[in-house]
Amino acid sequence: MVSIVIVSHSLKLAQGLLDLASQVTQGKVNIAIAAGIDDPVNPIGTDAIAVMNAIEEVYSDDGVLVMVDLGSAILSAETALDLMDPIQGQTIKICAAPLVEGCIVASASAASGLSLDAVATEAMNALSAKSQALGQPLRQEEPQRETTATNTNHQELHIFSCTADQPHGLHVRPAAVLAATLRSFNAQIWLAKAGKSVDAKSINKLMSLNIQHNDTLVFSVLGEDAEKVIETLKNTFKSNLI
């Protein structure tokens, strides 16, 4: 499983973020922090040795994603990688995602078993759900296009409808579990709510639907594993597995 390292100028910020991420992942992901410096008068800063120690503390062959806030945090993380075994360094990635949102999404993605590259990609897109909810598109972001099920191979389109029973809606943790479950199938899977359809294998796109308790959900599935997907969805929602 991918591990997470939080690098911040502020120890309090990093500790709070660690608490939040640990709650989201229910302690399933190894997360370490490297934050602040050992100076009672001026504790704000970062330390490359502390970053290296944090990476070594949670190192996994599956990879380590290093989340940084700004400025010297990036330099400290890069220096830490230079100090480490080059072979280990191949499975360590410094991520440019926003620290808070990126860390939460990355942690949830790691907990659901995604690869290092997939975890990093989800983290980098962590602002998309918030930007869409507030109607404030990111400058680099292309206008959101509604995704539709396009059947180019004349395959049978399978449909499954259900109601979101989760008391707090499909927030980051259940979205991560659902996306990870669906990624294992050889099929194209879309989830629609109120006429808007998204790729159901993406945590951020699932969250962009802002699914609330009792919302009606419609899954459309195409591909070799379509029937297996439908059965899995039925079992998942019937048994409240997310």
Automatic annotation (TrEMBL):
<feature type="domain" description="PTS EIIA type-4">
    <location>
        <begin position="1"/>
        <end position="134"/>
    </location>
</feature>
<dbReference type="Pfam" id="PF00381">
    <property type="entry name" value="PTS-HPr"/>
</dbReference>
<dbReference type="InterPro" id="IPR039643">
    <property type="entry name" value="DhaM"/>
</dbReference>
<feature type="domain" description="HPr">
    <location>
        <begin position="152"/>
        <end position="242"/>
    </location>
</feature>
<dbReference type="InterPro" id="IPR004701">
    <property type="entry name" value="PTS_EIIA_man-typ"/>
</dbReference>
<protein>
    <recommendedName>
        <fullName>phosphoenolpyruvate--glycerone phosphotransferase</fullName>
        <ecNumber>2.7.1.121</ecNumber>
    </recommendedName>
</protein>
<dbReference type="GO" id="GO:0016020">
    <property type="term" value="C:membrane"/>
</dbReference>
<dbReference type="GO" id="GO:0019563">
    <property type="term" value="P:glycerol catabolic process"/>
</dbReference>
<dbReference type="InterPro" id="IPR000032">
    <property type="entry name" value="HPr-like"/>
</dbReference>
<comment type="subunit">
    <text>Homodimer. The dihydroxyacetone kinase complex is composed of a homodimer of DhaM, a homodimer of DhaK and the subunit DhaL.</text>
</comment>
<dbReference type="Pfam" id="PF03610">
    <property type="entry name" value="EIIA-man"/>
</dbReference>
<keyword id="KW-0808">Transferase</keyword>
<dbReference type="InterPro" id="IPR035895">
    <property type="entry name" value="HPr-like_sf"/>
</dbReference>
<dbReference type="InterPro" id="IPR001020">
    <property type="entry name" value="PTS_HPr_His_P_site"/>
</dbReference>
<dbReference type="GO" id="GO:0047324">
    <property type="term" value="F:phosphoenolpyruvate-glycerone phosphotransferase activity"/>
</dbReference>
<dbReference type="GO" id="GO:0009401">
    <property type="term" value="P:phosphoenolpyruvate-dependent sugar phosphotransferase system"/>
</dbReference>
<feature type="region of interest" description="Disordered">
    <location>
        <begin position="132"/>
        <end position="153"/>
    </location>
</feature>
<dbReference type="InterPro" id="IPR036662">
    <property type="entry name" value="PTS_EIIA_man-typ_sf"/>
</dbReference>
<dbReference type="InterPro" id="IPR012844">
    <property type="entry name" value="DhaM_N"/>
</dbReference>
<comment type="function">
    <text>Component of the dihydroxyacetone kinase complex, which is responsible for the phosphoenolpyruvate (PEP)-dependent phosphorylation of dihydroxyacetone. DhaM serves as the phosphoryl donor. Is phosphorylated by phosphoenolpyruvate in an EI- and HPr-dependent reaction, and a phosphorelay system on histidine residues finally leads to phosphoryl transfer to DhaL and dihydroxyacetone.</text>
</comment>
